[in-house]
């Protein structure tokens, strides 16, 4: 174990939500570190959709790399690492709780505030499957536009799959719901509604995938011997939320597995925030960025040094030699940017 490194803010997760939170806390003058193991849903994006000012030829990896450069340029530290454990510890000097994080690489990090941006993983159906991003998609609001007037499939057997299939009728007139040999688990009401929409429910499992020269899906083969042409579609098998650290810190969870949050991403544990796909709501890059920004601003409002309270000043005044309160690392980064 290395020596303990201390920060005012530690952000766990380097996706759009975590990077946005780190950008705000760093620019607002707080010693900040980001711990990111790499990967994530945003990193998988072949193209970036629905982000104003970002053209669609920018991949998720390019978007995140640029954001990381921004955050580091303002003086934040970056750990390419994985946080294995987190716990609240008593601070004897201030009589307040802080948070100790231990990483897979042996780093021990102490933080005044923690922002969890660990997201979730989409549950993938069994192969054979089209290539992710080139015929296999998970985000309806991101990618439905790509399939206007195309043949589309939806894989799944629950209510969410049935509703996504019906929603796709807003964009295409040829939509199939692929059960892949599973029995439907949607409700009776959903089944009745589905039967009233022109969605073809295919019971047979997928046995083969045919791609074009550009790598995009062209058709799927089925166990009953049929071949159906598709441009692409969506897999709807649920989500696995990365809540290990939230549970270790005893944050309250919702019934759907997300972390329960109040305004600005505050969890049930004081000093711990959760943002992005880890929390309820739409899983969109701009929304994740906004949640990260709100959390970052709230952290600043909570831990900024000035204005001090009358109780802290105790009838005196702030010494000119004590300002500014910006950490030296951030001051140096700011001077380099001038």
UniProtKB/TrEMBL annotation:
GO molecular function term, any single one: oxidoreductase activity
Origin: domain of life: Archaea
Cited InterPro entries: FAD/NAD-bd_sf, FAD/NAD-binding_dom, Ferredoxin-NADP_redctase_2
Key words, A-Z: Flavoprotein, Oxidoreductase
Keyword Ribosomal protein among record annotations: no
Ranges of residues in domain FAD/NAD(P)-binding: 7-292
Pfam families reported in the protein's UniProt record: Pyr_redox_2
Designated name of the protein: Thioredoxin reductase (NADPH)
Organism in which the protein naturally occurs: Halomicrobium zhouii
Lineage: Archaea, Methanobacteriati, Methanobacteriota, Stenosarchaea group, Halobacteria
